[in-house]
Amino acid sequence: MDQRRYMFFVILTMIFFLVWSKVAPQLFPGMFPPPQQQVEEQAEPDADVNEELANSDAEPSDDDKQPAADEPAPEDDPAKQDLTEFPNKLVTLGDEGFDAGYLIQAQINSRGGAVDWVILTDPRYTTLNRKEQLKVIGNPISGGSDERVPNSFEMSVAQIDSQLAEFNTSLNEVEWEVVEQSPDSVTLRYPAPDGSLEVVKSYRISKAELELRDESPNGYMLNMDVVLRNLKDKSLETAYSLQGPVGVPLENVDNTRSFREIDIATIDDPSDPTDFTSIHLQAQEIVKQFDRARDGGKPVTAWRAPIHYAGLDVQFFAALVFPERGDEETVVQWFDSVEPQLLVEAEKPERSDFSFMMNSRKQAVPAGGEVKHTFDVFFGPKRTQLLRPLGAEEVVRLGWFSAIAKLMLGVLGFFHNWVGLPYAFAIILLTVLVRGLMFPISKKQAIESEKMKVLAPKLKELQDKYKDKPEEFAKAYRAFQKKHDYHPLYGCLPALLQLPIFWGLYTSLYQAVDLRLARFLWIDNLAAPDALFQLGFTVPWLGYTEFNLLPILTVILFIVQQKMFTPPPTSEEQAMTYKMMNFMMIAIGFAFYRVPAGLCLYFISSSLWGICERLLLKNQKGPDIDTEALSGPVKPEVVDQPDREPGFFEKLRIAADEAQGNAQRNASGRKYSKKNKNRKR
Predict the structure, then answer these.
(1) Residue 437: what are its φ and ψ, rounded to 5°?
(2) Average pLDDT of 112-139?
(3) Which of 187, 195, 253, 681 is deepest in the core (most CB within 10 A)?
(4) Is residue 672's pLDDT more than 90?
């Protein structure tokens, strides 16, 4: 009774908090203020350094400081210079498209020398409505403040921006000169108004072998050069800030569990470029850091170690920036810091939009010389085969059982690419293969389950007979186990062994980019809920707007399996546990309602296989149990065991059985104590 009251209290508490979280913000709006929508202006990193660099032009000589009276005033004063203007020009790289071997197209804008957008040309990668090719960056950003949204890879240089400020503009807003252009490359430049310095940017893409587009990352790379050129006859120091990717798409926002994330790989040992640590920062954490900094708390995280890459990713796609190394053995640290930028803080923090800024170290540029930094930027799907050559395999997060998940993805790809099956049938065949390999384990589990059904009445008799004698019940229970080779928790071991396989398969299907926009029957996208039809209204509290059939079928099959596989309860505690399992099934139904159709297809296939498997085993000869001995008394007896050391699973089984026996003995003891208390009253 105490346990039932406790479980009732837990369930009631969960329901209360669920209702409170939905109703309280409406009843007491003052207690739940909405998140701030306006993004406060971020202080420029290293402001003192930039101010110093803005005024760090080489000191003029004494002759320059004191010109002759009859000489004209110096012409290198930026305030007295005319601003050089260039025409606006949009350049599209890879305009010939997929058939010509280009896997990406990029539009370069002379305004700011930035990248407007990059799209994937592969016909498999379209928007969810299938109307146009997917933009990896450059998607519209809305919902934020009135502040200007930056463009990808625009940059600022302290010396040039300080001069452009006299004209109420900046290097991000002026038109750059297009000095060279081809179908797959473009070069732009912008000189400082005083003619002391110019910055040059070049963008290039390459053709790819289409048959290797899922194995080689070359066709997904945008190569970018940043050149700082000193036009004076004396050396100078300067630094720049380079904007990261902006406008990464967030698809299927109501149903996805993967939102935007910042990916940073910091190099721990500069002498070993392969020794780096992968860091993933989710949207919620970024918003939390900015909120904390605005309240005067700890500042936003900035990474100051050398970086192997920095980028953004969503569920299926990524945009990663790789600074080129000096050589294969050492690392040259170009950047003083890499800092997150919160562009739009959404009402739901996980849907916020952000980017990052890369701030270079001071660069000494010799007289008449230049400093050149080269970047390789990856825009493409999150495939392990594409990211492994780049050292960015960690961007595909497959969880604890990543080895199993990679194996499952490989088998899924084999069924589709080599056998030629559609992805829906590939999932079904993968499920059959996995369940078939686990058949010996499932068979053992079924035998133990049937044995428990046969022995349940006798075990109930023992519990009733010794309900007031817990010590004698423990001895009789151990004798009962030995006599009938009865190990109730042994049936749980197969389920534990299946758990890593199940979870690996679950995560692999969630990361399989090929399931995106794969069709099956009425399902338009195996990577999203099946959405049989629109409800025409929004379900209160839950927010459902579509009717998803597959999750409902999945839960129904789960309940059928539970009824078939679960032996009858032998105690009140076990009966209460079964009731709790029924409530859990209802909770699973709500949790699964927005699960991708591909995962539901796996669950349905696995459940149908399990039901057929159990029915097949049930028609065969059941466990060998001496039914005549069930009617006789149970006496302690010694069972001859082979003279050998018990194995790992046998030790685990023994420990599990002892734990259950102790639990049942304690339960009997509690009943006995409570009964005696009632008698005293």
Answers:
(1) -65, -25
(2) 95
(3) 187
(4) no
State the Cα–Cα distance between residues 541 and 264, nearest whole angstrom.
37
CA 86 vs. chain centroid, Å, equals 43
Quote the DSSP letter at residue 545. -
Each residue's pLDDT tens digit, 637-654:
444 444 445 555 455 555
Q: How many C-beta atoms lie closer than 10 Å to residue 428's C-beta?
A: 21
Amino acid at residue number 569: P
| 318/630 Cα distance (integer angstroms) | 64
Contact between residue 153 and residue 194 where contact means Cβ atoms under 8 Å apart: no
CB atoms within 10 A of CB 298: 9
3-state secondary structure of 473: helix
* C-alpha separations of 587 from 84, 258, 550, 593, 610 in Å: 66, 21, 16, 10, 22
Which DSSP symbol is given to 126?
B
Which ranges of 620-647 does DSSP label H, i.e. alpha helix?
627-630
Contact status, residue 520 vs residue 601, Cβ threshold 8 Å: yes
* Residue of 574, 621, 576, 629 whose CA lies nearest to 458: 629
Contact call for residues 431 and 605 (beta carbons, < 8 A): yes
Which candidate, 557, 574, 559, places its Cα nearest to that of 452?
A: 574
CA angle 260, 526, 212 (to 5 degrees): 75
pLDDT at residue 35 greater than cutoff 90 = no
Q: DSSP states of 490-531 as a string? A: GGHHHHHHHHHHHHHHHHHHHH-GGGTT--BTTBS-TTS---
DSSP string, 131-161: SSBPEEE-----SS-SSPPPPBT-EEEHHHH
Instruction: Quote the CA–CA distance of 339 and 359 in Å, as a whole number.
Output: 8
Report DSSP state, residue 327: S
Contact, 100 vs 219, CB < 8 A?
A: no
Structural element, H or E, at residue 663? helix 648-680
* Residue 615 · residue 608 · CB < 8 Å: no
Instruction: Name the phi and psi angles at 181, rounded to 5.
Output: -150, 140
Q: What separation, in Å, do the N-terminal and C-terminal C-alpha atoms of the chain show?
A: 18
- Provide CB contacts within 8 A for 152, sequence distance 6+: 114, 115, 116, 118, 137, 138, 243, 244, 245, 246, 247
- Dihedral sign, CA of 173, 178, 183, 185? negative
Q: How many residues does the chain have?
A: 681
The DSSP 8-state label assigned to residue 598 in this structure reads: H
**pTM beyond 0.85:** no
CB-side exposure of 125: number of CA atoms within 13 Å? Answer: 24
Q: What is the pLDDT of residues 378-403, one digit of tens each?
A: 999 999 999 999 999 999 988 778 88
